[in-house]
Amino acid sequence: MKKQDTFDTRMGKKIKQLREKAGFSQADLAKKLKYSSATTISLMEKGERSIKTKDVMKLITVLDTDFNYLFDDEIQIRAQEAVEKVDFKKLVKQKMKELEYLIDNEK
Q1: Residue 13 forms part of a structural domain
Q2: Is 105's pLDDT higher than 90?
Q3: Residue 45: which residues within 8 A CB-CB, separation 6 or more?
Q4: How many beta carbons lie within 10 A of that of residue 36, not counting itself?
Q5: What is the domain extent for residue 39?
Q6: What is the DSSP code (8-state) at residue 36?
Q7: Is the CB of residue 27 less than 8 Å from the CB of residue 43?
Q8: Phi-psi region at 5: left, alpha or beta (left = phi > 0; alpha = psi -120 to 50)
Q9: Total domain count, the chain
Q10: Is residue 63 included in any domain, yes or no?
């Protein structure tokens, strides 16, 4: 069964990629983030544990990255989901009615 694509799985992939690029083992990263074991990092990388909000800035510093790299994909995904929820046909009809009203009531 394929693992569901979630915020945690996407973030985990990025953490793993950055950790490996920095040359850190899971134990190294755990130590730098003051986690008790490498298991925490392993679970995060698999998307089975969320990174704590208070640790995001530490992670950015330790892995020499920035907020945008970690969250840009997520912002784009959320924006696309919001666009997909808009009923454009209904919106256009509403705007046409508003325009007709303005034209009819001009002058």
Answers
A1: yes
A2: no
A3: 12, 13, 15, 16, 19, 26
A4: 8
A5: 7-104
A6: S
A7: no
A8: beta
A9: 1
A10: yes
Q: Tell me the CATH number at 73.
A: 1.10.260.40
Residue 70 resides in a domain: yes
Distance between CA atoms of residues 102 and 84, nearest Å: 29
Tokens of 62: 């330790």
Cα–Cα separations (whole angstroms), residue 5 to 13, 17, 33, 47: 11, 17, 25, 9
**Which tens digit of pLDDT belongs to each residue from 34-87?**
999 999 999 999 999 998 888 889 999 999 998 888 887 777 877 788 888 888
In this structure, is residue 2 part of a structural domain?
no
Distances (CA, A) of 9 to 19, 37, 49, 85, 93: 15, 20, 9, 24, 40
State how far the Cα of 57 lies from the Cα of 67, in Å rounded to an integer.
8
- CB contact at 8 A, 61 and 18: no
Q: At 64, which helix (H) or strand (E)?
A: none
